[in-house]
Design a protein that fits this description.
alpha/beta; carbohydrate metabolism; 48% helix; binds (1S)-1,5-anhydro-1-(4-chloro-2,5-dihydroxyphenyl)-D-glucitol; Rossmann fold; 9-stranded mixed beta sheet; 2 domains; 6-stranded parallel beta sheet; Alpha-1,4 glucan phosphorylase; allosteric enzyme; single chain; 820 residues
Length: 820
């Protein structure tokens, strides 16, 4: 373990005393009566005491140096448990382990007491967490701004195979030990009301917003501890409180008094995270969350700017605001409003600042995920912002007219306002027009953003569209979650790789080394055993670690095609029972996924996989060759056990639809071989590890587009491929739902009569072939060992440290500040 500044200052006796003090004074337990949870809380608080001190010191030194910084605005930060990870970053893992042992405790057990703060849905939120880790590790000045949801993403359980959602009170009754409330940073946020014209002292006619009501924003800071340095950056989460209760519907009706006594309170604004991933629901409360988030964050950025003695004119020189998807887009008209209405800047001066402050990351091309808000909803809740959006659009349309005179078609297409039954505001268009940089999240995705999503914008604003390929933090996703592999890697290439992941390439020369292969495979085996024990303890299913552990872990979505995986499993089931000569290496198919509560087909797919699992896991005819495990309640802390145990990584989205993926990177880093389509970052993983060390299958992006254009005919595949037919038809029997045929037929129906929108049937045969190749190659353990070692060795590019350096060099232009 590398040592760092704080390590030297670590005083074991003092730390133990601090833990015992918190146990008594903060959690009202004595060492004799305390349970494991209280001890974890006390340890967490004792550590937070150290990190909060460093956070304040970092804040002070960065303010004094008055350097440029980035503000990462995101509605989601899927940070996962902090204690273990922060211990690694602080360089205190061993020391604290020894300290708590002297208190009669086991650190590993204590860490299991922590609930995951699940303040995000999936990839987008987890990316934001990895980015904060990499900003702090490399000391690029940054503040993360998010929402302090009372309830994070629901926890999931299964009842009779069906998903059941339970609210996630992640802070528990005692509160979360790592967070600290900052009352001095509170903000007041307006809502509703009207815009009025008045004449100022200089005699100029001005506009101003007169909100009908206000709510209060309370800041909570979570410490993002820099790896092996002294920097601690704030993840600042806003909680909404209301001075008085109010009712939204009645407020809009003008029933002011009634509204005060309604059921809905402004406290509800940050009550719960919307559980949709890659899907826009367009709910009023969600817009309120977005505005509340933006208003608090922009005000706090300006507060810091002025507190450091700066003028408003220098804002773009000192601050960049990164919009994580369109969710915080309303920050743009909010800043314009403040510059014009409060700081009295003219439009052009305000625009010159604002359009050099904001940058936007696009994470998806899926039409159902592109946010559009109805004009009337925005005009009602945020009337002044709607005016400003119209003005931005008016000026933009003038620009379009200059470039393509008289071309109304192009105007209609590019306009921020979509005409129709009710006019809608296209948030992505607003972002592209109003920012200095737009980026996609993998090379392929960024090309498609340019070519298909925003082709004319690329002509209008040459140089604005960038690529920054996503990455993952090697601290959490290797060093912390895979101690066995970490030790082996340390032995071969030293201990600097967690901060310099390219160094992993030094492992490549051991790929053929028999002794190293054996040790690498032994580590994998241990990790498989650790996960198998978890499955035995929590699900009562016995797994054989000699089987191939084949893993698909991600949100449940049709475009991610868990149902393609299911069809392959059904094909194996069919062949084991019907083809006398068919043989396969034992395989465990591991799924973990949450479905959005309103997404019926996604829930059907979960149910089907659970039902198939029930049957195959207990069918003696299969000779133990086939197991299916759907692990409930997928979350960061589960990923930390599953990923190190994976042999095969399923990345099987329809080409062109997964913007990047980041689970693909974590799995390859931990030595799983990818079976995947030419989609998102899979393309770049293949480039790095080489075509021999990945299993690519399926239609390419342009083949997908062509097939859709020509009209995809699912029945053509159904009739031509008897294995596909047998697999699909199993869904119409009662094989997996004894006595209840038809319970699984919605999936078959969707694929055959619903047009198979994600081309599952078109890719099935090639997918089956790729799996046969995996089966053959796994049986040759020397070959497999070489390939898995080379995956770990060759994916250094996918460190989020590199992603952050790309942002820093190409977009944010920051200089690192080393905190003393
Ligand atoms: C989300 O998790 C992603 C995109 C979105 O537009 C929304 Cl709303 C949520 C994911 C992408 O699907 C995934 O491919 C990507 O790796 C991730 O964002 C981070 O960029």
């Amino acid at each position: 373990m590398t040592t760092r500044g704080q390590t030297q200052q670590f005083d074991k006796a003092l730390f133990k005393a601090s833990v015992e003090k918190h146990l008594v004074t903060t959690y009202a337990k004595t060492p004799e009566t305390a349970d494991s949870r209280s001890w974890y809380l006390a340890v967490g608080k004792a550590l937070a005491e150290i990190s909060t001190g460093s956070l304040l010191e970092t804040e002070k030194q960065i303010a004094e140096q008055n350097v440029r910084s980035v503000n990462y605005l995101s509605l989601e930060f899927l940070i996962g448990r902090l204690t273990g990870n922060n211990l690694i970053s602080m360089g205190l893992y061993e020391e604290v382990s020894a300290a708590v042992e002297e208190l009669g405790l086991n650190l590993t057990d204590l860490l299991e007491e922590e609930r995951d703060p699940a303040l995000g849905n999936g990839g987008l939120g987890r990316l934001a967490a990895c980015f904060m880790d990499s900003l702090a590790a490399q000391e690029y000045p940054a503040v993360g701004y998010g929402l302090h949801y009372e309830y994070g993403l629901f926890s999931q359980s299964f009842e009779g195979g069906h998903q059941v959602e339970v609210p996630d009170a992640w802070r528990g009754i005692e509160g979360y030990p790592w967070e600290v409330v900052r009352p001095e940073l509170g903000q007041t946020v307006g809502l509703f009301g009207s815009v009025e014209t008045y004449t100022d002292k200089a005699g100029t006619s001005c506009r101003r917003w007169v909100p009908a009501m206000t709510v209060e924003g309370v800041a909570w800071d979570l410490p993002i501890v820099g790896y092996d340095n002294k920097s601690v950056y704030p993840l600042r989460l806003w909680e909404c409180r209301s001075p008085a209760p109010f009712n939204l519907a009645r407020f809009n009706d003008g029933d002011y008094v009634g509204a005060q006594y309604g059921q809905l309170e402004a406290g509800n604004v940050t009550k719960v995270l919307y559980p949709n991933d890659n899907h826009d629901q367009g709910k009023t409360l969600r817009l309120m969350q977005q505005y509340f988030h933006c208003a608090c964050s922009v005000a706090d950025i300006l507060r810091r700017h002025f507190a450091a003695g700066n003028k408003i004119e220098d804002l773009a020189k000192l601050e960049s605001i990164q919009l994580n998807d369109t969710h915080p887009t309303i920050a743009i008209p909010e800043l314009m409003r403040i510059l014009i209405d409060e700081h009295k800047l003219g439009w052009d001066a305000a625009w010159a600042i604002s359009s050099k402050v904001f940058a936007y990351t696009n994470h998806t091309l899926l039409p159902e995920a592109l946010e559009r808000w109805s004009e009337s909803l925005i005009a009602d809740m945020l009337p002044r912002h709607m005016e400003i959006i119209f003005e931005i659009n008016h000026r933009f349309m003038t620009l379009v007219e200059e470039k393509w005179p008289g071309n109304n078609e192009i105007k209609r297409k590019l306009s921020i306002i979509e005409e129709g039954q009710q006019r809608m505001v296209r948030m992505a268009n607003l972002c592209v027009v109003s920012t200095y940089a737009v980026n996609g999240v993998a090379a392929l995705h960024s090309e498609l953003v340019k070519r298909d999503l925003f082709p004319e914008f690329n002509e209008l604003f040459p140089g604005r569209l960038h690529n920054v390929t996503n990455g993952v933090t090697p601290r959490r996703w290797l060093k912390f979650c895979n101690p066995g592999l970490t030790e082996l890697v340390n032995e071969k290439i030293g201990t600097e790789w967690p901060a310099k992941l390219e160094q992993l390439s030094g492992l490549a020369k051991f790929a053929e080394d028999k002794k190293f292969q054996k040790r690498y495979l032994a580590v994998k085996k241990d990790n498989k055993q650790r996960f198998a024990d978890w499955v035995q303890d929590n699900m009562g299913i016995e797994l054989d670690t000699n089987a191939i552990f084949d893993v698909q872990i991600k949100r449940l979505h049709e475009y991610k095609r868990q149902h393609l995986n299911l069809l392959h499993i059904l094909s194996l089931y069919h062949r084991l029972l019907n083809e006398p000569t068919f043989d396969m290496h034992p395989r465990v198919f591991i799924f973990a996924a949450k479905a959005a509560p309103g997404y019926a087909l996604a829930k059907d797919i979960i149910f089907a996989i659970n039902k198939v699992a029930d049957k195959v896991n207990n069918d003696p005819r299969l000779g133990g060759k086939l197991k299916v495990v759907f692990v409930p309640d997928y979350r960061v802390s589960l990923a930390e056990i599953i990923i190190p145990a994976a042999d095969v990584s399923e990345q099987i989205s329809t080409a062109g639809l997964e913007a990047s993926g980041t689970g693909n990177m974590k799995l390859a880093l931990n030595g799983a071989l990818t079976i995947g389509t030419m989609d998102g970052a899979n393309v770049e993983i293949r480039e790095e590890v080489g075509d021999e060390n990945i299993f690519i299958f399926g239609l390419l992006v342009d083949e997908v587009l062509k097939q859709k254009e020509e009209g995809h005919d699912p029945y053509r595949y159904y009739h031509a491929d008897s294995l596909l037919r047998a697999s699909l038809d199993l869904l119409n029997t009662d094989e997996f739902t004894p006595g209840n045929p038809g319970q699984l037929s919605a999936i078959r129906q969707n694929l055959l009569d619903g047009g198979d929108p994600y081309l599952v049937l078109a890719d099935f045969a090639d997918y089956v072939k790729a799996h046969e190749k995996i089966d053959a190659e796994y049986r040759d353990q020397a070959t497999w060992a070489r390939k898995t070692i080379l995956n770990t060795a060759l994916v250094g590019k996918f460190s989020s440290d590199r992603s952050i350096r790309d942002y820093v060099n190409n977009i944010w232009k920051l200089k690192a500040v080393s905190v003393k």
